[in-house]
Write a structure and sequence with these properties.
It contains ten helices and eleven strands. By secondary structure, the protein is α+β, with helices and mostly antiparallel strands. The chain is elongated, with a radius of gyration of 28 Å.
């Protein structure tokens, strides 16, 4: 589990290990999605029944059909006990009682019926507890005719569930750390580090197979005035609202990364769509930003390898081109995006501005990124 890169891989490693440890033919790990009132299966391993898949997209069960995870578990904890596993046995299966473990309220009948329906003789179910709350469950089954799980198996499953929960907690902590490393805390968009990594990968793809790479750089107008006149909380709300607009527009181009570069600067990074599609979305972004009741719209510049901007050998050059286009849009107070290379190719004023060794001198001096 410690080596797993994501939750589903961690869950798979745990399910495989627990199935082997308990001598089961099948194992599954499910997560309790409280907001949806369901147990969602993350992974199935071992002998799968018809219709079951290792990583199901839509296998979920309403918790009211398995009320023990909601009622019995919490009632047991409230009494000062620790959550423990229980055993269910298919009707008619010799060698075991219907429940060889703590008594649970009505509601597990669906689980018992499912055993026979899926060709299994018995199961042991253990709650997964993270941070003192029920997170999900660990489920291990055996074939019909095999020895029925007993009290010792249930106790062992309780221990294995605790180990599994610790591994899942570690996986979630690492995932959270990764999210924080590549996510802007205020808007929830990607951050500059994520853009740099994705852009480097995109340009490698461009060099390999000619994939079109486009960068839309946005400067949110009027943020300072909002901060000065109405306070930074309102300014943050403007940043969040524009971030939502940017995300919405980015979704119009499949696979596009929406990011906040810092301060009032944002961007879209698209790989694949032709430049005309990107420019169209950039125009939509300008229109939607102008309709916000805060701020003064947005200045947008576009640079795309699909336009005559010359060779793009580095992320720095594409950033400089998009930044120069955005600089021109801001200076002209343009309500439309400015696109590098569309007015004369190499002689386009935007391209020439980006290719200057130093930013323009004087009061309008502006440092290009990277």
């Amino acid at each position: 589990m410690a080596a797993a890169p994501a939750l589903r891989d961690s869950a798979r490693a745990a399910a495989q290990g627990v199935r082997k440890a308990l001598g089961g033919s099948f194992a599954a790990i499910s997560k309790w999605e409280r907001e949806r009132g369901q147990l969602r299966v993350l992974v199935n391993v071992g002998e799968l029944a018809p219709g079951e898949r290792e990583f199901p997209d839509d296998e979920a069960y309403p918790v009211h059909e398995f009320s023990e995870i909601v009622g019995f578990l919490h009632e047991q904890w409230a009494g000062g006990g620790a959550p423990s596993a229980w055993v269910d046995v298919a009707e008619g299966e010799p060698g075991g009682e219907p429940s060889d473990g703590p008594e649970v309220p009505p509601g597990r009948r669906g689980r018992v019926a499912a055993l026979r329906r899926r060709g299994r003789g018995c199961c042991v179910v253990a709650p997964l507890v993270l941070h003192g709350r029920a997170w999900g469950e660990l489920y291990v089954a055996r074939r019909p005719g095999e020895p029925v799980f007993g009290r010792a198996d249930a106790d062992f499953a309780t221990v294995l569930a605790a180990v599994t929960a610790a591994g899942i907690a570690q996986t979630e902590r690492l995932a959270q750390a990764r999210r924080l490393a590549f996510t802007d805390a205020l808007t929830g968009l990607a951050n500059r580090r994520a853009v740099d990594m994705r852009l480097d990968e995109a340009l490698e793809q461009h060099r390999a197979d000619g994939a079109v790479v486009s960068l839309v750089v946005c400067d949110l107008n009027g943020l300072k005035q909002v901060n000065d006149s109405r306070g930074h909380a309102v300014g943050d709300r403007l940043l969040e609202r524009f971030g939502s607009v940017l995300s919405l527009c980015g979704a119009m181009l499949p696979g596009t990364l929406a990011a906040r570069l810092g301060g009032d600067e944002f961007c879209l990074l698209a790989v694949g769509p032709v430049s005309d599609e990107v420019v169209k979305v950039a125009g939509e972004l300008c229109g939607r930003a102008a309709e916000l009741d805060l701020g003064e719209g947005v200045a947008v510049g576009v640079a795309s390898t699909g336009d005559p901007i010359g060779p793009v050998h580095s992320a720095r050059r594409l950033f400089r081109l998009a930044d120069a286009a955005q600089y021109r849009a801001k200076a002209a107070k343009s309500g439309e995006p400015v696109v590098a290379g569309r007015h004369g190719g190499a002689d386009d004023p935007v391209v020439r501005l980006a290719d200057e060794p130093e930013p323009p001198p004087g009061p309008e001096r502006r440092k290009f990124r990277r």
